[in-house]
Amino acid sequence: MGGMPEAGVYIGQVIFCCMLVALTIAGSDSIGGAGIQADIRAMASQGVHAAVALTAVTAQNTTRVSGIFPLPAEEVVAQLDAVLEDVHVSAAKTGMLFSAGIASAVADRLDGEKFPLVVDPVMVAGVGDALNRDDLIGALRDRILPMATMLTPNVPEAEALVGYRIDDQTDVRRACRELAGMGAEAVLLKGGHMETNDCTDTLFHDGKFLSMSFPRVNVRGHGGGCILSSYLAANLAKGHGIWESALMARTAIDESISARYVIGRGVPLVEPLGAKLRDAQRYEVLSRLRNTALKVESALERLSSPETLEIYFALPGAESAKDVGSVAVMPSEKGGVGCGSFGASEASNRSALAAVCLDGRMRAGAKVRLTDERARAIRASDLTSRVVRAGRRPPSVAGTGAESALVHLGFVPDVVIDRGGGGREAAVWLFARTPEELLGKLMVALGRG
Questions:
Q1: CA–CA distance from 36 to each of 41, 98, 277 (Å)?
Q2: Calpha distance 431→441 (Å, rounded)
Q3: Which terminus has fewer CB within 10 Å in the chain: N or C?
Q4: pLDDT digits 0-9 by tens, 363-408
Q5: How far apart are alpha carbons 399 and 125 in whole angstroms?
Q6: 295-329 pLDDT, tens per residue?
Q7: Which CATH number applies to 277-445?
Q8: Domain topology for 8-272
């Protein structure tokens, strides 16, 4: 199956631009980490609209599959008819087909269609439970593989299709050739189940091999295979070739695995929108920081203070300096409010990460100069505060006064007053959940509360 995506629809002399559409034919995952739910998010992350034909409803979570309820084959075909009679599909993928009856019906309906088809021969869920009937394997070999532009088995799925164990790269290449011999134009054999230091995916197309290796992630992820095949379908829908689509999908799935998260007691979910969500969060962090910084600047001007200070706001679940945004605030004659950036201030980064580690809600903070007036204002307020002196810092705890105090205290107060000494300047560190909450605490510390 092949063909290029259409750029638009011609009506008379007017061209109406259309959103690219890819079709996913797969099962539903009640936990939302794989299947149709993951396919939609993965295709959307690549700028492609996902049309769907549901093959089965599963009752599953992050630990087990407790039920599979396949749709009648004619109902699957009815969904395909509804989609294909109305929109231009630029690529498609199959995921969980469950049975020979559904696979054969899908093959009959797609016969003659010209778009690329990615076949993910789903047989086992990410939690380890079977997702197919025994008769599916023969139907995949005989009916679905000959239609495949790209076939994306993992090692156990490839073993089921070729009928022998795959233990090393020699076996991988042999299996790729045999699977291509069954009709698939290209085979991407995923190597995550191999017992090797790195994971190596092997692409076979047009008589040539491409090995793509990446560091092994020791934590399992739910939905990775569905998401990878959806990335491939989306890139083929855009008109990219097989080699290019595979490389782009490989990069995207690495980002999605890095963005995995835990919602239950079992396998973490791979997140195809992770990079997009992180970009949106970064924009929000800097935007809210700057809005707060402008109000702090006004307060400094009212106080006729020549002081330059810095406020920060960390991303949810911040793990490194690149996850901490900060903005410098100074009187307008000295430059006013800076643009803001991530990872720019070592002191803010260390204190922010220490706070987030102890209490993930305490993502905002600031450092201001310590004066006796400010210390009195803080003590007279309702803010919880702790004092750090050089001689009282545990020798085993390094870093800023705020960082060492937090590690020693084991919780995050509103304020840490660092009296300085030992090479540190005296300072007031404030902690809050948001920049907006931080502003109120800053006004107290600056004598305006």
A1: 9, 14, 20
A2: 8
A3: C
A4: 999 998 899 999 999 999 999 999 887 655 444 445 566 888 888 8
A5: 45
A6: 988 888 777 777 788 899 999 888 899 999 999 88
A7: 3.40.225.10
A8: UDP-N-acetylmuramoyl-L-alanine:D-glutamate ligase (3.40.1190)
